[in-house]
Every structure is written in C-alpha cells, then in structure tokens.
C-alpha cells in the first residue's frame, strides 16, 4: 500500500498561501507608494521636489537647515577643543603628580565653556507648527539658527504681545529687535560682545562694540548686563563752569586709551592716541573758535550765521569729530545742539557729556535717529573732507536734507579737499538747490583748498 500524500500536500498548500499573502502585500505597498508620489507631485513639474533631491534648497518652509548644520558643527568643535584641553591637563597632572586642579583654570577653561556648549545644544530647536497664531503664521527667522550665543538668539526672536493685548502701542502684534545686516559677517566678534552673565557687570569692551559699529554691524543688540563706570566717579562741575573747563580725570575709564588723563591729550603730545580734532581738548584754544576774526576766508562767525535767521535757530545737529565746543558756544546763544561723536582714540563722548552737552553716539554708516523736517540747523566740520566717497556723501546729504526743516540752515564748515576734486564736491553740495547765504573758498595748502558754505533748505511744498 502506497504512502499518503497528505503531509506533502498540506505543506505545499501552506507555502502557496504564504506566497499569495506576500505578493498581495507587495502589490499593496507598491500602490500606496505610487499614490504617495502622486500626491507629492512627483509626476508633475515640481521645482521644490527637484531642489530637495539635489540638495539645492537650503531653507525649507522658513527654516534654514544650512545654518542649523553650521551651528551643530561649531558646538561639536567646542566639545572637541574642550576634550583636548582635559586630556592635556590630565597628562600634565600625571607627570607632576598633581592632586588639586587650579580653581581658576577649572572655572574659566573648563566649566564655563562646558556650560556654554550645553546651553548652545539645548537651544538648537526645530520649527514647530503648534503654538503659532492662526492669524499670523509666523516663521522662525533664519538668523536665529545662525548664531550660537543664547543672548543673540533671544534678542532677535520676535517678541509677542501679552495674550490679552492684540496690538501694542505701535499698532503691531509683536516687536522685532534690530541688528545690522553686517553683523552676520562679524559673527565671532558679535558673539563675544553678547557673551556675558545676565545681571552681572559687562566687560569693558566698548572698543569691541565700536569696531562692530564701524564695520556696519549697527545698530548693535541691547544687552542685559551692567555698564561699568569709574570706581572713583566724581560729581560733574556746575553747568556754567563745565562748558569751558577740562573735566575731572576720575570720571573716565581710561583702560582702552594710550592716555590716562585729559592733559595727556594735548596737541603737544605726539603719542596722545588720536589724530583728528587737533587741540580740541585745550579749552583756551577752543574758546577762540567761531567768535574771533580769522585770516582764513572760510571761517564764519556764529553771530553772523544767527543774524541771517534771527530767533529761528533753536535746535540743531553738529556732525563731526570734536569735544562739543560748537554746541557749547551755541548754548550761550540759547540754541540746543546735539553733537555726534565716536571715541576714536580719546573719550570724546564722555568729554561732551561732562561739559553738560548732549553726545549722540552714531557712525557715518547709520541713518540719523531724528524725524523728518525737525532740525533748524546742521553744522559739519572736521570730519567730512576729501577722503569721502561721492556716493556715500550723496546718501549722507540726503539724510541731512530729510531731518532739516524747510528754511533750515546747512553750515558746511571748513570742508577741505584737493583742488582737482573741488568741482565734484561743489556739485554734490549744490545739487539739492539750496539757497546760498554764504560761500567761501580759501587755500589750505599748495594742492588743497577749504570750502565753507551756509545754505538754506527750500520749502518744497507739495
């Protein structure tokens, strides 16, 4: 009697069922994949999809993945550097049989960088769809992922109004803090500037801040640390005395200057640390400006200028490098002048303020923080001269025109340039069709000339 085929038939049947099931699953997965590609636009001309396949789209839905990758790399480099330091220190300890690690080294070289790196890693966050208002659909600013320092990220993140307030005093739903676009080009310097402990004293790093400003990183972000002042700060002199007297040396932090007192800044000292505004820290010499007769035809007196618009000149701007002498002299005529200043080798801002005058800490790069048609007078001298590019001068003059009121005066004081460039600069000053009240050209040297002018802005009624 032959053997039964039941076990073999049963096994064959089971294998057949498995093949049918697996084949069905393959077909189902294939259909689902085709449907997914269809809805993703794979069979259509979808440029975004092509960009994603070829890695040319670096920003996806408002999120800068390239900057995120760069930030992760920087954080990893910090950890690698820290690890190398620890290994080196460990080897030194083995050689010297050291037991106790120096406390300052531990805090400054290990604990602080380790804490900063941990904070930086925790701040790397992906964009989230939840928590965004339906009426605003805010996307994260790509700049947030460009910087590592926590304070910069917190500063540039848009600040929402409180939930119960839909619109703030400015009529907007949120506040955008500003930094100059050139800050991206000076990332390390800006992160150093913003690396501090909240609520503690700031580093004495105003020169780093000024370097950033002069390189176009302006305006700088606000900081949440306490500004250092002189440890022996004294009460300023009374206003009638302070206008024409050198301030107390103890009221200035001299750490970042070549000089350590105001007398050192004398024009007789060749190592005083600054080159512009020769003699502007010598009060007896400054007292003679704009009030005494001069042999130079380009020198105008303040009384002659004010007599052109009697009673109309009340507020103005002095744009240049100096210690506020023009503002001090105008104050004696009841005219309030704001003086722009940078601390280029000497404490110009502190000097102006200690004289009881108003310093405005701005660069030539920045749009003036004054509203349109508000100033009665703009005076410039000692700074703008033949070094300035004509296109830059064009932007500056139009900004001055913006803040100068109709009928206001533009006083160009001792602008000097080479004789061959004079026609170009004359055209720049006259292109806005201001009325001429005074105009004088006098020789400065064999190849250079002075130009002084007093011009009145036309009404331009529309």
From TrEMBL:
Protein topology in the membrane: Single-pass membrane protein; Single-pass type II membrane protein
GO CC annotations on file: endomembrane system; membrane
Gene3D superfamilies: Vaccinia Virus protein VP39
GO biological process: methylation
Subcellular location: Endomembrane system; Membrane
InterPro entries linked to this entry: Prob_Methyltransferase, Put_SAM_MeTrfase, SAM-dependent_MTases_sf
Keywords for this protein: Coiled coil, Glycoprotein, Membrane, Methyltransferase, Signal-anchor, Transferase, Transmembrane, Transmembrane helix
Keyword Transmembrane helix: yes
One function term, GO molecular function aspect: methyltransferase activity
Similarity annotation: Belongs to the methyltransferase superfamily.
Protein name, UniProt field: S-adenosyl-L-methionine-dependent methyltransferase
Organism: Acacia crassicarpa
């Amino acid at each position: 009697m032959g053997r039964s085929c039941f076990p073999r038939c049963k096994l064959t049947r089971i294998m057949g069922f498995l093949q049918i099931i697996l084949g069905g699953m393959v077909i189902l997965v294939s259909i689902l994949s085709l449907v997914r590609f269809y809805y993703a636009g794979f069979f259509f001309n979808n440029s975004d999809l092509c960009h994603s396949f070829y890695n040319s789209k670096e920003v996806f839905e408002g999120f800068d993945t390239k900057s995120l990758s760069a930030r992760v790399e920087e954080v990893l480099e910090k950890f690698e550097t820290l690890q190398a330091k620890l290994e080196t220190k460990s080897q030194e300890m083995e050689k010297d049989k050291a037991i106790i690690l120096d406390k300052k080294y531990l805090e400054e070289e290990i604990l602080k960088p380790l804490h900063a790196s941990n904070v930086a890693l925790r701040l790397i966050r992906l964009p989230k769809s939840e928590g965004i208002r339906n009426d605003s659909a805010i996307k994260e600013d790509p700049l947030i992922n460009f910087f590592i320092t926590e304070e910069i990220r917190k500063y540039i993140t848009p600040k929402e109004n409180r939930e119960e307030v839909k619109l703030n005093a400015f009529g907007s739903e949120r506040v955008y803090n500003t930094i100059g676009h050139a800050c991206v080009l000076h990332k390390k310097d800006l992160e150093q500037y913003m690396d501090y402990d909240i609520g503690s004293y700031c580093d004495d790093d105003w020169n780093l801040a000024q370097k950033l400003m002069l390189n176009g990183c302006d305006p700088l972000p606000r900081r949440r640390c306490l500004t250092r002042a002189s440890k022996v700060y004294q009460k300023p002199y009374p206003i009638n005395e302070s206008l024409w007297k050198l301030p107390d040396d103890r009221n200035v932090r001299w750490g970042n200057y070549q000089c350590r007192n105001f007398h050192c800044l004398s024009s007789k000292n060749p190592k005083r640390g600054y080159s512009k505004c020769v003699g502007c820290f010598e009060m007896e010499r400054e007292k003679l400006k704009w009030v005494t007769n001069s042999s130079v035809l380009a020198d105008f007196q303040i009384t002659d200028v004010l007599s052109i618009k009697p009673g109309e000149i009340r507020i103005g701007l002095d744009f240049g490098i100096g210690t506020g002498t023009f503002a001090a002299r105008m104050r004696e005529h009841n005219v309030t002048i704001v003086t722009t200043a940078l601390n280029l080798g000497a404490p110009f801002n502190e000097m102006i303020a200690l004289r009881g005058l108003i310093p405005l800490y701005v660069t030539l790069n920045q749009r003036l923080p004054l509203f349109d048609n508000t100033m009665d007078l703009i005076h410039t001298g000692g700074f703008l001269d033949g070094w300035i590019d004509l296109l830059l001068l064009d932007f500056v003059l139009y900004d001055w025109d913006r803040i100068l009121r109709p009928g206001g005066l533009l006083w160009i004081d001792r602008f000097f340039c080479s004789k061959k460039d004079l026609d170009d600069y004359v055209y720049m000053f006259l292109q806005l069709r201001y009325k001429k009240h005074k105009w004088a050209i006098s020789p400065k040297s064999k190849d250079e000339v002075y130009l002084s002018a007093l011009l009145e802005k036309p009404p331009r009624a529309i």
